Fold this protein.
Amino acid sequence: VAAAAEGVTDARTLWRRLGRAGIPDLLGGGPHDCGPETPPDRLGDLLTELDARLPLGCTLSVCVQVATVLPLLRTLAEDSPAAGKVLVRATRGDAVVALAITDAGVSGSDLLDMRTAITSDGGTARLDGAKEWITNAGQCDHLLVLARHRPQRHITSFRWVLLNADRPGVSCRPSTGELFPGAGLGDPRFTGVALDPDDLVGRPGRALAEAARQLAVERLAGALWARALCRRVLADTHRYLVTRPAGGGPLWTNAAVRDRFARCVVEWRRMDALCAAATGWPATAEAMVLKAACAESADRILGECVQLSGAAAFRDGGVARTRAEAAMFGIAGGATGTMLAGIAEDATGLLGSAR
Ligand SMILES: Cc1cc2nc3c(=O)[nH]c(=O)nc-3n(C[C@H](O)[C@H](O)[C@H](O)COP(=O)(O)OP(=O)(O)OC[C@H]3O[C@@H](n4cnc5c(N)ncnc54)[C@H](O)[C@@H]3O)c2cc1C
């Protein structure tokens, strides 16, 4: 990973190098997920190493692919040779694939409201709709799109479409010009895209359930990454405090400063304990607990690190920018509010499973 990240300036080069080094293969292996064949530790190690070396956007680009895209393609390849071919190229680092679930203009938290749809026109299927905030959409070779194939508001009303990014009718504009450089965040639009039978991958009606299952893995990945990021920022902040002259000694000698930093360490140990307890791939509700808890802890820790750094937090590459981008831990892949709603739904089960 260190060699792959060396001198890298864009996520496509990074992905190609990781592919050549066989890193995506190390995480795969199982027919379905990143796990259960692969221990979460490996995914955590990869994200930790990337986080230590690269801007957050580049790590996000890799995270979505290893934790979500490749495992989904593995599942889809069981029924669809077209998905199998893209899987092989993506695993070698020869193709970047974006996962386009979140619809534009509607709450991303309620996927049943999705409007992006496959319709049939005189026997020819076409795709119309728009997505937003899609990682890698601006730098991908293929888009794996979740689309409605029936009007009913039901979990079985969706299926996957796998498209080349340069297909007629597919366009994309950047979601943001400032935050997350390297992530290729984009808002793709599909306007009357004529679909070949090969573009419809996987079994009809299974897509939303498959996405939900894989999102649990992505949520664990996010928690492991948030833990690594917070540890890195805490170590940097500690170095700053012990060297920053103030009055009779460095800031670190001030009892109030030490107390505030110590609270951050306590918060980080909470995150660490939760992550350490996830020795296998989590069930849906467990993943929601992890995601909600780690997002809130990260927000608390990074907010305090901004304050402890003073104005230096706002220098280029400072912790204020990291904090702004890291707020995504509470949004991307499922907002904290939605996680809490799911946790409440399963409260009895979650309490029952506690020892
Ligand atoms: C950096 C980043 C990367 C992303 N990458 C991808 C990607 O690769 N692919 C992809 O498909 N999407 C991606 N997304 C989109 C992301 O998954 C959505 O932003 C997310 O699902 C939340 O949807 P939303 O933004 O529409 O917020 P909304 O759903 O509009 O939610 C807004 C607020 O309302 C609250 N809320 C909504 N519904 C409920 C509820 N039922 N109960 C309680 N509170 C609720 C939420 O908690 C939130 O606080 C990315 C987003 C970001 C920021």
Observations:
- The chain has a mean pLDDT of 94.
- The beta strands are 97-100, 117-121, 124-130, 142-148, 158-164, 170-174, 186-195, 200-201, 245-246, 249-250.
- The chain has twelve helices and ten strands.
